[in-house]
Design a protein that fits this description.
Elements lengths: L1 H7 L2 H7 L4 H21 L2 H16 L4 H18 L7 H11 L5 H18 L7 H11 L5 H20 L5 H11 L5 H16 L9 H11 L5 H20 L5 H11 L5 H18 L7 H11 L5 H16 L10 H11 L5 H17 L1 H6 L1 H10 L6 H14 L3 H17 L1 H19 L1 H13 L4 H17 L4 H8 L5 H14 L3 H11 L2 H10 L7 H13 L6 H6 L7 H13 L5 H11 L33 H4 L3 H43 L1
Pfam family, one: Vac14_Fab1_bd
Protein name: Vacuolar protein 14 C-terminal Fig4-binding domain-containing protein
Subcellular location: Endomembrane system
């Protein structure tokens, strides 16, 4: 076949085709073009194939660069000479040209671009069957190190785009896998090339690029963080156009794209996060039922963005979060409550307060709408919710308490909650000191003060750690005496001697309040059980009056001057009716060091009592025998039936027994410390003797 070609093309033409001068190569190509035209007119296609084979084997694959250049010009000339009949020879012509794109010589690569450009102008749509190979070659040439090659590749690229847009033979299905593979390339020139093609193909009405968007969407988002401003702009423009198409399209595969957006929402690049969250926002509005299986993933992307450093991202994330929470999905239709709860639980550990707050709003929303389903997952989320009570943010703690209060509508959940709180306070005294009042007060508002205090008292009554029980009771007592939220509870306690509900509450609290002498006395003062308060004071032993006791007593004396105990101070205006009150206050005065501020405060108050010298004194060993003479509620004519309903002697016995336990516990502690010190000392002596 080579011999046939040599007989067809004169030797001088072939020599000029490989000449180092471009003009000679060009003239030789023109002669070949004329020869091929004659052969085509005569229908000598076998001879034409022989010429193509000669140009391919002896020239384009030659080790000599000038031969390769000449071969490329020659192949282009053959195509021009064939004109409309070139299509049947493309299988011979195109492969060697494409192969030349990889040539080490930049001038050869340049002539390959020029040759393919001329070939494409002739055959137009007929070379679409080679599109993927041509695209792949152009993709690589777009990043060529030689500027002239890049320029030639751009010209060829524009021509190929024109041909593709007017062709009805282009297969988007065959092209997408190649595009998807190339989208991960980082070279900026290649990225510009790819975005350009995506934009062009999307502009063709007959090509459904939107349907294949999930295949290259991640690559476009990846370009948003490119160091080149131009590439970022091009990628953003392409994404904006696709988003607009999504809004106008009735059929969109939201699911696959949602997965990509969720990943990109966690990008370290600010612009990528903003674009991702903006897309998610539109998806939530448009996606409907398609997005139900992806709600958890979407929520997982939104919640962290609510605390983003960039305000625009925070605004869009909050709006999206509200949109998502407003959707009332049906668990029967694939709405995975467990997955949502898992995300909300995870975000409870976020370092950002705003995210933790929104996570808690989700707990509350799900509990309100899907209570039965929510409670099915309670074992997985209850402890994280309880741990959140230690959150450094007051706003978070208050929301956690609202969620717990909603859960605690069932009695066993309520008991679990209070039990855990007590255990938490036991293990974290700092939390009790800093947050105890906030937690207890809020629970009282949400669940009812009486219910909460009764439960605390019931659990603390059997607390084995006596020291903690005393501290906890003192804390609850202080909250009781100072918090406005517990005003109704204090009012009920004031009726303890005349009302059955007040009596039951008093006895319920007394069961655990007896862990602390000062808490017991305070409770009696609230209940106006002054006689019993006096008896409690009289029962105190030397071991009971320690520094901790005096600190608590100091607080009580100062609280007596607050509005909470205004009624008590007013009762001092009638000392004859409130003998036991006076005796109680004087008893407290006798326990205080005379140089203390509390002593001076109480003494000053008692000095204002009119006719205090008329205070009745009794030598009776049993103060309860005086009840009929001086009643506790200040009304001498009132029956004492209600008062007698409370077995105060029995309560006093309970108090004394509890205090005995505390004294023995203290002795055991002191003994243990002495034993430990003695053991340490003996070990030191033993060590010294060995030395």
């Amino acid at each position: 076949m080579a011999a046939d070609a040599l007989s067809i093309i004169p030797g001088a033409v072939l020599r000029n085709l490989s000449d180092k001068l471009y003009e000679k190569r060009k003239n030789a190509a023109l002669e070949i073009e004329g020869i091929v035209k004659q052969l085509a007119t005569a229908g000598e296609h076998e001879k034409i194939s022989a010429v193509i084979s000669l140009l391919t084997n002896d020239f384009t694959y030659s080790p000599q660069a000038n031969h390769r250049k000449g071969g490329l010009i020659g192949l282009a000339a053959v195509t021009v000479g064939l004109t409309s009949e070139a299509a049947q020879h493309l299988e011979q012509i195109v492969p060697p040209v494409l192969n030349s794109f990889l040539d080490q010589d930049s001038r050869v690569r340049y002539y390959a671009c020029e040759a393919l450009y001329n070939i494409a102008k002739v055959v137009r749509g007929d070379f679409i069957i080679y599109f993927n190979k041509i695209f792949d070659a152009l993709c690589k040439l777009s990043a060529d190190s030689d500027a002239n090659v890049q320029s030639a590749a751009h010209l060829l690229d524009r021509l190929v785009k024109d041909i593709v847009t007017e062709s009805d033979q282009f297969s988007i299905e065959e092209f997408i896998p190649l595009l998807r593979e190339r989208m991960n390339v980082l070279n900026p020139y290649v990225r510009q090339f790819l975005v350009g093609w995506i934009t062009v193909l999307d502009s063709v009405p007959d090509i459904d690029m939107l349907g294949f968007l999930p295949d290259f969407l991640d690559g476009l988002f990846n370009m948003l963080s490119d160091s080149s401003h131009e590439i970022r702009q091009q990628a953003d423009a392409a994404l904006s156009e696709f988003l607009q198409e999504i809004k106008n399209s009735p059929n969109v595969d939201y699911g696959r794209m949602a997965e990509i957006l969720v990943r990109r929402a966690g990008s370290t690049d600010e612009f990528t996060r903003l674009t991702s969250i903006t897309w998610i926002n539109e998806f939530v509005k448009l996606g409907g039922e398609q997005l139900v299986p992806y709600y958890a993933d979407i929520l997982g992307a939104i919640l962290p963005c609510i605390s983003d450093e960039e305000e625009k991202i925070r605004v869009v994330a909050r709006e999206t979060n509200e949109e998502l929470r407003a959707i009332k999905a049906d668990p029967a239709e694939g709405f995975d409550i467990g997955a949502i709860l898992s995300i909300a639980k995870r975000e409870l550990n976020s370092e950002h307060e705003a995210t933790r707050i929104e996570a808690l709003h989700w707990f509350f929303t799900l509990l309100d709408r899907y209570r039965a389903e929510f409670l099915a997952y309670l074992n997985d989320i209850f402890h994280p919710l309880l741990n959140a009570l230690s959150d450094p943010s007051d706003a978070v703690v208050l929301l956690v308490l609202e969620v717990h209060a909603c859960i605690a509508e069932e009695s066993h959940h309520f008991h679990h909650l209070v039990s855990y709180l007590i255990r938490t306070f036991h293990n974290n005294h700092f939390l009790l000191e800093k947050r105890g009042a906030l937690i207890v007060r809020r629970l009282c508002v949400l669940l009812g003060a009486e219910k909460v205090y009764r439960e605390f008292s019931t659990i603390l009554e059997s607390e084995v750690d006596l020291d903690f029980a005393s501290v906890m009771v003192q804390a609850l007592n202080l909250i009781l005496l100072t918090s406005t939220e517990l005003g109704e509870l204090r009012s009920l306690l004031k009726k303890s001697l005349v009302d059955s509900c007040g009596k039951d509450l008093f006895q319920s609290l007394y069961a655990s309040w007896r862990h602390s002498p000062m808490a017991t006395i305070s409770l009696c003062l609230l209940a106006q059980a002054y006689s019993h308060a006096s008896c409690v004071i009289q029962s105190l032993g030397e071991e009971d009056i320690n520094v901790k006791f005096l600190v608590q007593l100091d607080k009580l004396i100062r609280l007596l001057e607050t509005p909470v105990f205004a009624y008590l101070r007013l009762q001092l205006l009638e000392p004859g009716k409130h003998t036991w009150l006076l005796k109680t206050l004087y008893g407290l005065l006798m326990l205080l060091p005379q140089q203390s501020a509390a002593f001076k405060i109480l003494r000053t108050r008692l000095k204002t009592v009119p006719f205090s010298e008329n205070l009745k004194r009794t030598s009776s060993a049993n103060p309860y025998s005086q009840i009929l003479q001086v009643t506790e509620d200040g009304n001498r004519n009132q029956d004492t039936q209600n008062y007698s309903a409370i077995n105060f002697p029995f309560l006093l016995q309970q108090f004394e027994n509890m205090q005995l336990q505390h004294r023995n516990h203290l002795k055991d502690q002191l003994q243990s410390r002495k034993s430990a010190s003695a053991l340490t000392l003996s070990q030191v002596f033993c060590f010294c003797s060995h030395i």
